[in-house]
Amino acid sequence: GLMNKPRFAVYEEFVKRFRQAAKTVGKKIYLVNYWISAHPGASLSRTLKLGLYLAKRRIRPEQIQDFLPSPMTLATCMYHTGQDPFTGKKVYIPRSERERRRQRALLQYDRPQNRKLLVEALEKLNSLHVLPKFEQAVKAGRAKARRRTRPKSRS
User: Fold this and answer.
1) Average pLDDT per consecutive 10 residues, the chain (155 residues; last block may be shorter)
2) pTM for this structure?
3) CA atoms within 13 A of residue 78's CA, in its CB half-sphere
């Protein structure tokens, strides 16, 4: 891909090994994901796929950075030229603030303040039918949070 990141199968294997290592050492350690939205090449439909991937796995990203061009990077070259520097092929660039906010909403689907933008993005993609998948992930996350905070009964 344009971000030079491996496929999700590599990420999933890493997560599996991370959890095994945590279990082996007997510690509660957490994996903190860091995601970038509105990267060159990231269309709204591709971001929807990522959002659904996250929702299916009940991953609720806290740390998301909207792509910002920074000097001397390939991504910045793509951002300014609209082309892949190696192939010369046209690269989609999410430039409008509205689309960038929609992309973030697709990734942070669980935040109430993103609800309007989430629906707006799904409407734009003619994908309103997947809204229940996001809603199910939000409900499951809230139920899990309630179980974690519930005081343990003394018997």
Assistant:
1) 80 94 93 91 95 93 92 94 95 96 97 96 97 92 72 59
2) 0.85
3) 23
